[in-house]
Design goal:
globular; eight-stranded antiparallel sheet; alpha+beta; RNA Cap, Translation Initiation Factor Eif4e
Length: 261
């Protein structure tokens, strides 16, 4: 694995040597195992049994994609040129392989972002699955006092572990961490702002289909509270929710809060 301690903070560590679980009894580097026990009677080996020669992965409920926003050069960079799709994964083993090979958030350059979104969803307001949604967020202003690496990891695990919402909610699109001069900010993007999406959603109650406004608000507030718990915030520290449309109209990611918990 790459040595993250010596990584260039300007960009993620190259990910071309990430160990991904083999599906055919081979080792992660594509060669046959020299350990005769790896092929005996087709025994199941998870990463917890053998970190090098495992042959079974622990699947996630959804496939996820990691994105990275590099700092602007100051020359009128286009957002699409700064936003880079890094890699997609759908298992616990792949997540840890990726996480252990990228630059820690605390070592990223200012104006960098990591985005972890469900596959097929771009971390942009304009994306069809985001345009009717919003974001829960909290700013950590005492940067030197914050373990941002631990907080971001905890939020990512909560996202891919599907603990931020109930199974039929269909709201969580992704999570993001922003590195800025005066603060770190962690956000959680949702599909709706509590109102049903025009045209309905894609399955169950995704998109707010079949929900009343009160039910939509209740679901968002529940997600906000779980997000707050994932961040380990105190009772007097609140997370705020704002819609993407309001943020776009205000010209800032810090639009007036619609909800707070």
């Amino acid at each position: 694995m790459a040595d993250t301690a010596t990584a260039n903070p300007q960009s993620p560590v190259p990910l071309d040597t990430i160990p991904i679980s083999p599906s055919d009894g081979t080792t992660p580097n594509g060669t046959g195992s020299s350990d005769s026990t790896s092929a005996d009677t087709g025994a199941i080996k998870t990463v917890f049994h053998d970190p090098d020669n495992f042959n079974v992965k622990h699947p996630l409920m959804n496939q996820w994609t990691l994105w990275f926003t590099k700092p602007p050069s100051g020359k009128g960079d286009n957002w699409n040129d700064l936003l880079k799709e890094v890699i997609s994964f759908d298992s616990v083993e792949e997540f840890w392989g990726i996480y252990n090979n990228i630059t820690p958030t605390s070592e990223l350059a200012l104006k960098s972002d990591y985005h972890l979104f469900k596959k097929g969803v771009r971390p942009e307001w304009e994306d069809a699955q985001n345009k009717h949604g919003g974001k829960w967020a909290f700013q950590f202003k005492e940067k030197k006092m914050v373990n941002i690496d631990g907080l971001w990891l905890h939020v990512m695990l909560a996202a891919i572990g599907e603990t931020l919402e109930d199974e039929d909610d269909g709201e969580v699109m992704g999570v993001v961490v922003n590195v800025r001069k005066g603060f770190y900010r962690i956000g959680l993007w949702t599909r709706t702002t509590g109102r049903p999406v025009p045209g309905g959603g894609d399955g169950n109650n995704a998109g707010g289909k079949g929900r009343s406004l009160d039910q939509g608000k209740e679901i968002l507030l529940k997600i906000g509270k779980r997000f707050k718990d994932a961040l380990g915030l105190k009772d007097n520290e609140g997370v705020e929710f704002a819609g993407h449309t309001e943020s776009a109209h205000s010209g800032s990611t810090r639009a007036k809060a619609k909800f707070a918990v």
